[in-house]
Amino acid sequence: MDAHALKNDFTVLRNQTLTYLDTAASSLKPDVVLEAMNAYYHNNPVNVHRGVYEMSHVATKHYEQARRDIANFINADFEEVVFTRGASSALNLVALTWGEQNLQAGDEIVTSMLEHHSHLLPWQQLAKRKKASLVYVPLNAEGRITEAALKKVITKRTKILTLTYVSNTLGYKTPLEPIIKIAKAHGIKTSIDAAQAVPHTPVDVKKLDCDFLAFSGHKMCGPSGIGVLYAKRELLDKLDPLEYGGDMNDRVGLYDVEVKRPPYKFETGTPPIAEAIGLARAVQYLSKIGLEKIANHEHHLATLAIAGLQSIEGVTIYNPTTDTGIVNFNFDGVHPHDAVTVFDEASVALRAGHHCAQLVLKFLEVSATLRASFYLYNTEEDVQHFIKTVASARRFFTKVGF
Amino acid sequence: MQKMEHLYRQIIMDHYKNPRHKGLKDDSSFVTHRHKNPSCGDDITIQSRVENGIVKEIRHDGTGCSICCSSASVVADLLTNKTVDEARSLIHNYIKMIADQPFEQEDALEDALAYEGVKQFPARIKCATIAWKALEATLDEEEGETVE
Ligand SMILES: Cc1ncc(COP(=O)(O)O)c(C=O)c1O
Predict the structure, then answer these.
(1) Residue B145's pLDDT is what?
(2) CA–CA separation, A325 vs B138, rounded Å?
(3) Which domain holds residue A132?
């Protein structure tokens, strides 16, 4: 793949000298995605599943084709793809439906300190309401979830594993295949936060055999305002909806309602139509480049960046063995928010802070860090510019007396 | 790096490295306010003790970037022994300066003038104002109590 050429697909990269290293927060969006969304707004900007006129029929066709494309992308069945507002609302949906409807006092929920707040807090709060226990799988010295550690924490009371696929802070990939096998063997359900996995690496939900899996459109070249909850069909069949309203029912009576089959029973109200169409176009864009290639490319850039950072005195790297395009570091003695301003000056966009994963920072025993994350549109020149900026920032901070 | 040099002035680094009035008092005559910026982790607690309309003592503690921590020291230094009205007026003028709006009392702002460079970094405005706003909140609470 040719990252230099890919930069041309993005207006924001064509028009300015931006070194964008914050894809883990949100990716940039290629023009083809915007065009696909515009085509909906220009040509048939009407509601779906409602009108009996031609234009609504066309909008519905495009919307449902988007679902089909996205289902194929992760090897799910059409009925197993529920559109949500994003990964956060998809992960909450699991806790508020399956969790609410199945957990009891004394049950155990296994989670990890690597979780994003969107995957931690719904279960933490549910555990409180249900008087269930939240059990943290101990991370190894590097900060990874391992199969061995997981085996040690599961008990007869464990009902669900709620784990991230890729840590948004440390870039580690959880060994999910063996872990999910263990869960299956014990009748334990699995909720997987794949917000940092689906955009970057091939994900096959059938092979993975997870029960629930969530991701967001805006981190994978798609629009904000849409995400996906994948869940096994037999689970979706059994669960009661979280929200009731228009479009999710077949028949409404005075005292009862017959809800639609999945995925529709979980999608009340007018859905994010343009966003679904945009996300399907993003999926097509990513597939054409190839997810394996994207994964290798960004890991290659992260490896170069780590080597560069290691050559600079006074910089600490928290994940030198990252599996992905995510690099996490700090300038010794310099608060990340001071550091990030230097990068801003050099038109390098980085993330400073706790990355919505405060427990990871607790594990690292720091209050905040800097994160650079690489994606398909980043080049080796971006890495060089990044490292040059780190080196001159280090000199500057030492000079002004940090 | 020129804009950066303008931001990280010597006065600022000096207050960062050698903060004045640091450390909280366990004393009920102080009013305490804690302000946080969860997006970057700035976390500042300010205490003030007002007597007869005069800010007699200011204390601060917390964690954050150099701009945030140093400005707690600067505001404590500057507003000690000012009347509450003077203090409020300086706070408002400082915040205007940071927001790149016309402001007054240039001379009276003393060390705080070193923060003028922040206006070139809109993303850092919160860092430079969090301690000042926390202090203002202690004064508001103080006055609320006297009115009662
Ligand atoms: C690992 C992980 N999970 C969940 C989320 C939440 O995604 P969203 O903000 O799109 O709902 C994010 C994004 O910040 C993430 O990185």
Answers:
(1) 62
(2) 45
(3) 44-288
ipTM reported for the complex surpasses 0.85: no
Nearest CA to ligand 1 atom 9: A88
Q: Is residue B148 part of a domain?
A: no
Separation in Å, CA of B85 to nearest CA in chain A: 33
Instruction: Report the predicted TM-score, pTM, of the whole model to 2 decimal places.
Output: 0.92
Give the active site residues of A: 356
pLDDT tens-digit map of B121-130: 888 999 999 9
Q: What is the CATH number of the domain that holds B82?
A: 3.90.1010.10
Same domain, A221 and A281: yes
Structural domain harbouring B26: 2-142
A341–B68: do the CB atoms touch at under 8 Å?
no
For the stretch A89-103, pLDDT in tens is 999 999 999 999 999
